[in-house]
Amino acid sequence: MPEQEWAGVWFRRVMRRDGPEILGDPEGQLPCSLTYVAILPPGLMWAQQGATPGTPKLRHTCEQGDGVGPYGWEFHDGLSFGRQHIQDGALRLTTEFVKRPGGQHGGDWSWRVTVEPQTSGTSALPLVSLFFYVVTDGKEVLVPEVGAKGQLKFISGHSSELGDFRFTLMTPTNPGDTAPKYSSYNVFWSSNPGLPLLTEMVKSRLNSWFQHRPPGASPERYLGLPGSLKWEDKGPSRQGQGQGQFLIQQVTLKVPFSVELVFESGSARGGGSQPLEQLAGSLLTQALESHAEAFREHFEKTFQLKEKGLSPEEQALGQAALSGLLGGIGYFYGQGLVLADMGVEGSEQKVDPALFPPVPLFTAVPSRSFFPRGFLWDEGFHQLVVQRWDPRLTREVLGHWLGLLNADGWIGREQVLGDEARARVPPEFLVQRAAHANPPTLLLPIAHMLEGGDPADFAFLRRAFPRLRAWFSWLHKSQAGPVPLSYRWRGRDPALPTLLNPKTLPSGLDDYPRASHPSANERHLDLRCWVALGARVLVRLAEQLGEAEAAAELGPLAASLEAEESLDELHWAPELGVFADFGNHTRAVQLKPRPPQGLLRVVGRPHPRLQYVDALGYVSLFPMLLRLLDPNSSRLGPLLDVLADSRHLWSPFGLRSLAASSPFYGQRNSEHDPPYWRGAVWLNVNYLALGALYHYGRLDGPHQARAAKLHSELRANVVGNVWRQYQATGFLWEQYSDRDGRGMGCRPFQGWTSLVLLAMAEDY
């Protein structure tokens, strides 16, 4: 999971390999444009020596509460170049990488890590250790060559995927200089304990004192690794016999300094008329600057922020939003835990979850520090940004997600693949349930493909169509509601006495209030709208592909779902004046202290009955958000009214998720569960709202002028607040307070919050 690592540049995969099976598609139904294979996972750790008493604080993976930050990618093109800045107390680290394609195994890669003091003029420059490591799973050959005083000259090796290769850790220098800088070296070589345990292994071995003795300066003590390169000390019978290896080089020196690591592919050097110069030093600097300039040019050509009059600082925010999203893309491989659908909801039959066969997944992630894995409903929003930048990447990602389809047409909403991923996930979220759906947001970038006219997109859609159709068919049938053309999210939490309102995690809106008493009689408005959008997109796609049978089958369903009479009949609540869910509901519920149990739910009068659910918020807007209403619809005006009313959804920082007038607004769902989708401003839904307002503001109708005005005002509020919070904290956030605009939840959250870039570009 490379997106977890602080340096974020130590790629565990290279783009090389032919064959459609990498998409989870052994029959070759999906196209394969970029492909990924296992490589030796290299990585970076660091520690500031002597900053605190005892063992120095070792940095390795992104963690939410470790006090590091801000950090993030300044540039990342998603393919061959990136530059990231990390602030860690008195230190500022810059990590950069560039790829030079060539040969049959992906080409050469070079990395540069620069460590400088956070403020200039610092009198006591800190002593810092960098730890560069390589891990194998036992199938690769590593041959380290050690020089004087524990310094590795290079590591040569071979694997079936990469052929012959060599890693070289260059001698450190002052930033921008070529003269060597005095450094102390330690090396450690051991069996691989498993990726989740690397940090603890290094911490446990960092227990011997050494002297750092630069010429002409006073010596300083530092904690170093006491290992050697004599593998036989670990047991010679295990080396090369399927036991993975862990090889780490510690480099300790005074800041400021730069260190470069060069990966050279043997096949990139074979057969050429002239030998390739090593991608290091001034050549690396030139390559990095050339890629940075190419990034800036492609960014402006794609999003035109400068042309639209946005300031250089706002353009930098847009570049960081895109780069953080691209820098979080990772390749995952492993088995997920799945609980099969027994066909009877709420069945008492006990069934253990099963490990599904191992699958690959190439995907973006919502947050490197908190959600470093694939989420189905997040990914559709991610790809709205990515596809503007590089449509090939989006085709690759969508191909992988569709490759996860099981025989029934189900895709798990959260992909926790392999031991390393499972080590980062709370136990209650490990198991995916094959009866539970998730919003089909992958259809959003699919719809954008239909509008773009790219022949490569069209070729992809032709081959992906059978899986898209199977996925939609499963959603339509498995989530059918109690009456025709109604739908119900399976998987609501049971009505426990500790919960104010049982959650609906499959909806993606988690604690957004639904019917107070879950039942099979519920009708969920947002799900019906997602199915209506799916039917519309699939019909358009079938027609463009000439799939007459599919178009004939899906056409009547799409027409029925888009008919406003049907939507009104099932979801318009006259007493509320908006669209709403329907179910067994009362608003007379609250949490009250009941010692010693704590907060417990108390239900008063009136008692629950079948009725529309008075929970005004994002769900109420879905017919407008997904542009399902005609511009002349009589229902559009009331939705614009509640959207624009500060007593309900409007705030100076964006649309709040739940109306300030709701009894659930800002309420905890349990003693230990703070509000999540109960008032906070979320960028993904605000982006849908901006797109809808822009859409209706360009169509003739009674609400055209008002929609256009609201779009302009909402865009200013959303973009302005994200910009202010980014300036203040250096992060994009998971959500924003509707009261004061401050960032909340986890950070950095450069998943769908990166949609701020498309809002700035007015690209919907």
TrEMBL record:
GO terms for molecular function: Glc3Man9GlcNAc2 oligosaccharide glucosidase activity. The keyword Hydrolase applies. Belongs to the glycosyl hydrolase 63 family. SUPFAM superfamilies: Six-hairpin glycosidases. Cleaves the distal alpha 1,2-linked glucose residue from the Glc(3)Man(9)GlcNAc(2) oligosaccharide precursor. In the context of N-glycan degradation, cleaves the distal alpha 1,2-linked glucose residue from the Glc(3)Man(9)GlcNAc(2) oligosaccharide precursor in a highly specific manner. Coiled coil: none annotated. Residues 42-172 form the Glycosyl hydrolase family 63 N-terminal domain. Residues 281-762 form the Glycosyl hydrolase family 63 C-terminal domain. This is Mannosyl-oligosaccharide glucosidase. It is an enzyme of class 3 (hydrolase). It catalyses: N(4)-(alpha-D-Glc-(1->2)-alpha-D-Glc-(1->3)-alpha-D-Glc-(1->3)-alpha-D-Man-(1->2)-alpha-D-Man-(1->2)-alpha-D-Man-(1->3)-[alpha-D-Man-(1->2)-alpha-D-Man-(1->3)-[alpha-D-Man-(1->2)-alpha-D-Man-(1->6)]-alpha-D-Man-(1->6)]-beta-D-Man-(1->4)-beta-D-GlcNAc-(1->4)-beta-D-GlcNAc)-L-asparaginyl-[protein] + H2O = N(4)-(alpha-D-Glc-(1->3)-alpha-D-Glc-(1->3)-alpha-D-Man-(1->2)-alpha-D-Man-(1->2)-alpha-D-Man-(1->3)-[alpha-D-Man-(1->2)-alpha-D-Man-(1->3)-[alpha-D-Man-(1->2)-alpha-D-Man-(1->6)]-alpha-D-Man-(1->6)]-beta-D-Man-(1->4)-beta-D-GlcNAc-(1->4)-beta-D-GlcNAc)-L-asparaginyl-[protein] + beta-D-glucose. Keywords: Endoplasmic reticulum, Glycoprotein, Glycosidase, Hydrolase, Membrane, Signal-anchor, Transmembrane, Transmembrane helix. It is found in: Endoplasmic reticulum membrane. It comes from the Eukaryota. Its main location: endoplasmic reticulum. Pfam families: Glyco_hydro_63, Glyco_hydro_63N. GO terms for biological process: oligosaccharide metabolic process; protein N-linked glycosylation. Pathway: Glycan metabolism; N-glycan degradation. The gene is MOGS. GO terms for cellular component: endoplasmic reticulum membrane. It is a single-pass type II membrane protein.
